[in-house]
């Protein structure tokens, strides 16, 4: 049968689905079952891939662990060669603490006494000088009260002067020295010089020495160990 040409413009006949509804329902159910089966297969494949990946990762991890445990004796032997480092670190910390402890009250007393002697006025003489230094366990001058000020030491002196006001000059001169403060004449009495029979003033007093008088000899900026010292510590030169 030849189709009717479009130029004739014959109205198209309506198409009628003569299949019963049960067949269309069966087809729809078949397509749905196919999709479900495809999704199930895809899920099983994905689950199997995840299991295989986890299994492979576990096998690789166990192999790496076995290799590391096999190298443990070798690494332990290498680590034992550096045991001296702990001793060096401990000695270094002890040396720092010892240096700080020793330098806490380190004063060049010879220089301090020479400074005092150079400050004494010409008409005034010292007959005795006594130094009471502090120790790392405590300062000098504390009496246990909150108002007491502990210092690094105390210098007690006695002597003679030809004039009464020279003792005041000595107080001013001592307080002007760096590292000294609180100079004072405790007693002053008129006496007679045993050699010239001239009148003289016998006096005694003291001056406090502050922490500004620390020598700083134990301080250092050294950051590297001398190679010879390091060799002596580690025993590499033996």
What is the strand arrangement across the widest sheet? 1-2-4-3
Helicity, as a percent range: 40-55%
Instruction: Give the overall shape.
Output: rod-shaped
Q: State the major sheet.
A: 4 strands, antiparallel
CATH topology (fold) name of the largest domain = Alpha-Beta Plaits
The termini sit apart by 116 Å
How many helical elements? 6
Write down the overall mean pLDDT. Answer: 76
Q: Give the H and E element order.
A: HHHHEEHEEH
Radius of gyration: 51 Å
- Fraction in beta strands: 15-25%
Question: What's the CATH class of the largest domain, please?
Answer: Alpha Beta
Known CATH architecture of the largest domain: 2-Layer Sandwich
Q: Total domains, how many?
A: 2
The helix-and-strand class reads alpha+beta
Overall strand count: 4
**Low-confidence sequence ranges:** none
Transmembrane segments: 35-54
Protein name: Tfp pilus assembly protein PilN
Keywords: Membrane, Transmembrane, Transmembrane helix
Organism: Demequina mangrovi
Overview of this structure, please?
This protein has 238 residues and is α+β, with helices and mostly antiparallel strands. The chain has 2 domains: 20-103; 109-213, Alpha-Beta Plaits, CATH 3.30.70. It has helices at residues 21-70, 72-80, 84-103, 109-119, 166-175, 227-234; strands at 124-133, 153-161, 180-192, 199-209. Strands 1-2-4-3 form a 4-stranded antiparallel beta sheet, with helices on one face. A hairpin with a 6-residue loop joins strand 3 (180-192) and strand 4 (199-209). 11% of the residues are buried. The model has no long low-confidence stretch (mean pLDDT 76).
């Amino acid at each position: 049968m030849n189709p009717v040409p479009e130029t004739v413009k014959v109205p198209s006949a309506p198409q009628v689905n003569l299949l019963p509804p049960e067949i269309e329902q069966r087809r729809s159910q078949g397509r749905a079952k196919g999709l479900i089966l495809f999704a199930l297969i895809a899920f099983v494949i994905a689950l199997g891939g995840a299991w295989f990946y986890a299994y492979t990762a576990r096998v690789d991890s166990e192999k790496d662990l076995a290799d590391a445990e096999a190298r443990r004796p070798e690494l332990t032997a290498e680590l034992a060669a550096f045991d001296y480092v702990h001793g060096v670190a401990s000695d270094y910390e002890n040396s720092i603490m010892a240096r700080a402890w020793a330098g806490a009250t380190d004063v060049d007393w010879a220089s301090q006494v020479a400074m005092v002697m150079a400050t004494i006025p010409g008409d005034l003489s010292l007959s005795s000088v006594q130094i009471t230094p502090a120790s790392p366990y405590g300062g000098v001058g504390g009496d246990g009260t909150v108002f007491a000020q502990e210092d690094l030491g105390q210098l007690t002196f006695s002597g003679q002067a030809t004039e009464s006001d020279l003792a005041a000059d000595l107080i001013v001169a001592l307080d002007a020295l760096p590292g000294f403060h609180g100079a004072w004449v405790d007693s002053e009495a008129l006496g007679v010089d045993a050699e010239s029979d001239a009148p003289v003033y016998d006096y005694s007093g003291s001056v406090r020495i502050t922490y500004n008088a620390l020598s700083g000899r134990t301080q250092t900026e050294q950051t590297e160990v001398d190679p010879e010292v390091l060799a002596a510590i580690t025993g590499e030169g033996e």
